[in-house]
Write a structure and sequence with these properties.
By secondary structure, the protein is α/β, with parallel strands linked by helices. It has one domain: NAD(P)-binding Rossmann-like Domain (Rossmann fold, 3-Layer(aba) Sandwich). The chain contains 10 helices and 9 strands. The strands form 2 sheets. Strands 3-2-1-4-5-6-9 form a 7-stranded parallel beta sheet, sandwiched between helices. A two-stranded parallel sheet has the order 7-8. One of its GO terms (biological process) is steroid biosynthetic process. InterPro entries: NAD(P)-bd_dom_sf (IPR036291), Sc_DH/Rdtase_CS (IPR020904), SDR_fam (IPR002347).
Length: about 300
């Protein structure tokens, strides 16, 4: 085994360089052709059944509106019934002919089973599962009073998504449907003050990349990596901590429109805003430079707000 490892250590670097030099231009050409093809084809979601978690506000709410405008049927999931009723009524006014709400908590496995069962009982099928439910937190890792305080972040962001996905897979396989996983740019970029949050999103990224291989070709998976979005969850938090919203934040409606377009085109990844894609490339090619920039941002601008006594 050691001999094989030694051989791979010697051969793979030059072979990879040769491959990139000779074949990467052809790969880019193929990607361009596929991109043009995707832009010419857009999925018709009229009367398709779409289940959206975290639909009471933020990205989930506005993605629901985009689907509603195209006549999709919606199953809206979140903990706040009163907010779900408002989103459901707005969705009906925008064009959705059939909307149900299912209050519950994605971190509860029995609730996740209920979400799928009630959707199938009402509509008879499931075409798209939009995994959006999540919580955000900014805190220095060492400032947790009890490390167990971090558990709800993973329970909601990661396990809540995997639970409902597990119960949805048999129905999505029947419909040749789609799973959309809304993760975060922090899954690829280390985000200071959000170590556990970033870990939960990175876990989702790798989970759905693996699941994409396991479920292909029956179920398509789109992974969304948004940057900072102005939502009811993030904006008040930023204003409380720093006195204003984050300068690079994007409006939630614009983000939702971009996500919906990407889903319709059948994208495997959606980076929104699109400049995030180039930051990810920089992270892969020159990780030290990105790490230095983030460290400078943290030490110079963010850390003063989190001084320890």
């Amino acid at each position: 085994m050691d001999i094989l490892t030694t051989i791979l250590n010697l051969l793979l670097p030059p072979l990879t360089i040769i491959f990139l030099f000779l074949f990467y231009p052809f790969y880019l050409l193929i990607k361009l052709v596929l991109c043009l093809r995707k832009n010419l084809h857009f999925e018709n979601v009229a009367r398709k059944v779409v289940l959206i978690t975290g639909a009471s506000s933020g990205i989930g709410e506005h993605v629901a509106y985009e689907y509603a405008k195209k006549g999709a049927y919606l199953a809206l999931v979140a903990r706040r019934r009163d907010r779900l009723e408002i989103v459901a009524e707005t969705s009906r006014q925008l064009g959705s002919g059939n909307v149900i709400i299912i209050p519950g908590d994605v971190s509860n496995v029995e609730d996740c089973k209920k979400f799928i069962d009630e959707t199938i009982h009402h509509f008879g099928k499931l075409d798209h599962l939009i995994n959006n439910a999540g919580v955000f937190q900014t805190v220095l890792f060492e400032d947790f009073t009890q490390i167990q305080e971090a558990n709800p972040i993973m329970d909601i962001n990661f396990w809540g998504t995997t639970y409902i996905t597990y119960f949805a897979i048999p129905h999505l396989r029947k419909s040749k449907g789609k799973i959309v996983a809304i993760t975060s740019g922090s899954a690829n970029i280390p985000l200071p003050l959000a170590s556990i949050y970033a870990a939960s999103k990175a876990a989702l990224l790798r989970f759905f990349e693996t699941l994409r291989i396991e479920l292909s070709p029956d179920i398509k998976i789109t992974i969304v990596l948004p940057g900072v979005v102005s939502t009811d969850m993030t904006t008040p938090h930023c204003i409380e901590k720093y006195g204003s919203d984050f300068i690079l934040s994007e409006s939630v409606s614009k983000c939702a429109k971009a996500i919906f377009r990407g889903i319709g085109r059948g994208e495997t990844y959606i980076e929104e805003p699109s400049w995030m894609k180039w930051l990810f490339i920089m992270k892969n090619v020159c990780p030290e430079i990105v790490d230095y920039g983030l460290n400078y941002l943290f030490v110079s601008y963010l850390k003063p707000y989190f001084k320890r006594d």
